[in-house]
Each structure stands twice: as C-alpha cells, then as structure tokens.
User: Fold UDP-glucose 6-dehydrogenase from Streptomyces coelicolor.
Amino acid sequence: MALKITVIGTGYLGATHAAAMAELGFEVLGLDVVPEKIETLQRGEVPMYEPGLRELLGKHVAGIEGSSGRLRFTTDFAEVAAFGDVHFLCVNTPQKHGEYACDMSYVDSALASLAPHLTGPALVVGKSTVPVGSADRLAAYLAEHAPAGDGAELAWNPEFLREGFAVEDTLHPDRLVVGVRSERAERLLREVYATPIEEGSPFVVTDFPTAELVKTAANSFLATKISFINAMAEVCEAAGGDVAKLAEAIGYDDRIGKKFLRAGIGFGGGCLPKDIRAFMARAGELGADQALTFLREIDSVNMRQRGRMVELTRQALGGGPFLGKRVAVLGATFKPDSDDVRDSPALNVAGQVHLQGAQVTVYDPKGMENARRLFPTLGYADSALEAVRGADVVLHLTEWREFRELDPEVLGEAAAARVILDGRNALDPALWRKAGWTYRAMGRPTA
Ligand code: UDX
Assistant:
C-alpha cells in the first residue's frame, strides 16, 4: 500500500513540501497550529508569493473542483499521528532574539505534540534547519515519549529549496540528503523520493550530524561566495577595477564557477544570514569556534555593503546631507520572484537613506504589502515610473526582470535628474547611458 505522508508546519517549506508530496502521488495531511494558515491553504491559497505553488495546491487540495483531493489539512496532532506513515517536520527555526543561536522551540513543541500519539510504526523526518546535534537529542526524546517505542523512529532530511524556485527545487532536487540510523528509515525515504531518484537526483545517505551539517555548510559556502565577490568589489573600488568583469573572468574556471558571484548590496532573507550566525553559535558550543571565525567576516563584509550603497547615494547627490533630496528605490524584497522582505538589503538601504532625511519612494513588483508593514514610514508608489517621478537619484536594489525591461528614456523624462545606482550589477550600463543617464554600479567605479 502507498505510504501516507504528513507535513507538520505549513509555512514556506511545509506548504511547498506538502503540495509536492501530493504531486508525487501520495495522500498527504498537512498540520499547522495556526488555524488561519490552515483555512487559507484549504481554499488553495498561499500567504506568500511563490511561482507555481498556488497552481500546485489547486491541483491537489481536497474540496477544490477538479483537484486530486490527495492533500488535506488539520490542526489536530492525534489525526496526523493516526494518518501518517512518514511525518515531515517543517517548522521554522528563527534566530533567537538578541542572540546568534537559532530558536528550536517550534521543532521541540511539534515533536512534543506528536510523540505521545505515535502508537504504531512511524518515521518522523526532520527537514528544518537545526544546529548539529539536534537530531540526536530529538531521537532520544522520541524513543522516550512515543508509545510505539522502537517502532517510532527519527531521520534527518535537510531542505535546500530556494525562494522563487521552491516548487521546482522540491520536485526536482539537485540532491537528496538523508541522515538515518536504520535500513528501514532509508528504505522508507527511498520510497518517498522514488520519482526524483528515478529522474537522477543523487541520494546521499549519512549519519545524523553530517545530514544536519550539510545544510549549514552549503549555506555558509553560498554566503562566502557572495561576500568574497563583494570584498573583491571593495578592492575594485579602491583600485579602479571592474568587479563584474573580474567575476566573469574567474567564473570561467569551472572549479570556481560563475554562479553566486554577483557583487552588490549582498545577501539577506530568512535563511543565509540567520543560518551562518546559528552555525557560529553552535560551533562555539562545540568548542570549534575557531573553525568558523571566518563566517564573522563573511557576515560583516555582507552587512557593510548596505552602508556602502548609502554612501554611493550620498556621493551621487553631491556629497552633502540627504535632507530634502528625493530618492527612488526600485526593489524591496531580498531577491526577485519573492515577496519576502525579511532582512532585505534593499529595504535596509531605503530605510537608512530615509532616516537620514531623504524623501524615499519605493516600488517593488510583489513586496509592497510586506514592505509597507515592516517600514510604514517610507513612501510607496504603484509603479517604477511613479517611484522615479521627480527623483534626484534612482537606486536599483532588487534585480527583478521588470526593472531590466524598463525604458530608460521614459524614466528619464519623469526623473528630476538622470542618475542611477545599480546595487545589483544587473542593469545594462550601455542602455542607460545611451538615454543620457549617469550609471554607477558597486565595484565598478569606471565601468
Ligand atoms: C538560500 C539557499 O540558496 C537555499 O539553498 C537554502 O535552502 C535557503 O537559503 P534563498 O534564501 O531563497 O535560498 O536565497 P538565495 O537565492 O540563496 O539568495 C540569497 C541572497 O543572496 C539574496 O538576497 C540574493 O540577492 C543574494 N545574492 C545571490 C547576491 O547578492 N549575489 C549572488 O550572486 C547571488
């Protein structure tokens, strides 16, 4: 008989995972402790913008006309325990207030709610990003609290999905990593992921700590790549070089690779910043803090770029105070194809310039609502053109396709001055210059 799957926590990761599991053919029951989230999902809606996710939910959520009916939702842990053979833990692990460490309370409470109901054989699979050592601890908890005893087992299966590509990354992962302690756990997970495995996704079997570390190591590496190129951008600024050319040239070496070498205002979002900090905190607890001190530098190179963008803006406005200046900001989300503004470098720069006295008007294709909620004192416009109207300088801070397709001529007529600063190195300088704009990008003082 086909496995039945439950997904505990229906945020970004969980909602996507639940829909993907239904797409793979399984009967799925999703659980969240927030009833409003469940009501939204039951209507086939998603509380965030993620390409393809709404369509996938509509295809499978029970009660929606024409759906497979394979995906249902509940708030009841007893129902989840009775239903599922495999339970995925997909709750979030945010950064603790005032600390680098990550907050495990949602993971702990999800397992505490589930375990007492596990009376028969079950595999609990953690997907959340957790400090190394957590799976060990949670396995001991499960053994003690599940009435099924040995029948209830834990596995760790980190998630690597990117916002904006969450559906694609979940259905066609570039690798599957499973930390397991038994052949049974491995067999069950091979069954869950039979389709992507058949399609060629590598399946890497490890112990618990390695599986947990793969996730934090991968994110640390990505963060390091971005901060590396941003450090090179700083040197290019000082030496009169061009970081975009430099990135292209080193990227041809396939040991280096050209991806994640776009210099600019740096990384943000709900993952990379908090994950590298939690990793440092955990290494400290383990007595291995020296091994990760470089991540402190990665973090500070990254945070510095935001301030550098503010200074470039000041220079572009003549070097004096911001007071009375009008600044247009294109982009509020931490990356394109997302409505997520968590730790967004774009919004951070917009906020800094605004707090120093400039009149800032922001436009973003999908992030307006979230940006307004987080930063209600900024000005907002309904289009790029409206944001730019009357501006003394335009800042391009999130690399949406829409911004690359703007007509510099049309924008030029609306702006008070034709000055654009590219904080993402994503616009075509020749195009803007042709329309009479002064174009300046980070790490390319002369380009
Ligand atoms: C990241 C990881 O990529 C993903 O595997 C993990 O599961 C979660 O964290 P995500 O947070 O969606 O995913 O964003 P990502 O695409 O990695 O981008 C992170 C940030 O880096 C964005 O702010 C982006 O603008 C920035 N970035 C990316 C750069 O500044 N330069 C680059 O070259 C690439």
In short: The first helix runs from residue 12 to 23.
